[in-house]
From TrEMBL:
The organism of origin for this protein: Selenomonas infelix ATCC 43532
Pfam families (UniProt xref): THF_DHG_CYH, THF_DHG_CYH_C
Keywords: Amino-acid biosynthesis, Histidine biosynthesis, Hydrolase, Methionine biosynthesis, Multifunctional enzyme, NADP, One-carbon metabolism, Oxidoreductase, Purine biosynthesis
GO biological process, one term: tetrahydrofolate interconversion
GO molecular function: methenyltetrahydrofolate cyclohydrolase activity; methylenetetrahydrofolate dehydrogenase (NADP+) activity
Organism domain of life: Bacteria
EC number: 1.5.1.5, 3.5.4.9
Subunit structure as annotated in this protein's UniProt entry: Homodimer.
Protein name from the UniProt record: Bifunctional protein FolD
Keyword Iron: no
GO cellular component, one term: cytosol
Amino acid sequence: MARILYGKEFAARIKASAQHGALMLRECGVHPCLAVIIVGNDPASEVYVRNKEKACAELGIRSHHIPLPAETTREELLACIDELNADEEVHGILVQLPLPKPLSESSEEVLSRIDPRKDVDGFHPVSVGHLFLGTPGLRPCTPAGCIRMLEYAGIRMEGAHAVIIGRSNIVGKPMAMLLLERHATVTLCHSRTENLAAITREADILVAAVGQPHFVTADMVKPGATVIDVGINRIAPKKLVGDVDFESVSEVAGAITPVPGGVGLLTVAMLMENVVQAAKAQTEAGGE
């Protein structure tokens, strides 16, 4: 039976670091602040926003919740972001995705409007550039949380073969860059990859981020591999499952993250760390 990598254990360590950083800043007269814009009333998005607000309150980070109606225009949303960009007391800005239609068609423009120094989601082109170059910057929360978990769990990345299923800008691509940074050999798979199971069976670290319930089965996993399940799929009103068939894969893998209770907790914890990092960088830049 695989070692189960519970997110709560690793998230607590990330949060403790963020809490200490927030305390240090408050002692210098700076209160880290995260502004979250949510457009419309998507139930899942509202749950995510509440989780972020709760984490902020726990760690001594100020949160500014900005609900906008679903009819909000592109111009109104961009103006709201501009206002937050100019507010020196706001250190992190997050636009909760997905945006409702027709705004969803402007998602790239909306994310690019955020001041890169306040881009705590790590999605701005400038942040992506820093990630690609390996220079300091704000990293996307989910992949960064997965890397931190592997480090804390003592799972070797250097020289390991890491296979990622899914090439999204939010998880797959940044995960590949972060693993490369830690000297893993990375294969990035997607919906058009041929002989997928043969490739995944070579993985020492297998990351599933496809958005399909139970997509990864035991016959796709190398015995002893570490399996990170980034997927979260609602298959019944009160039942969430990942992209990995946990029951069968946990019999083969060496370590595995559960869903729920795995990667999702790391994402929120890393967001808190990014807010503190952004506040510290802006404070230092302002004092020069």
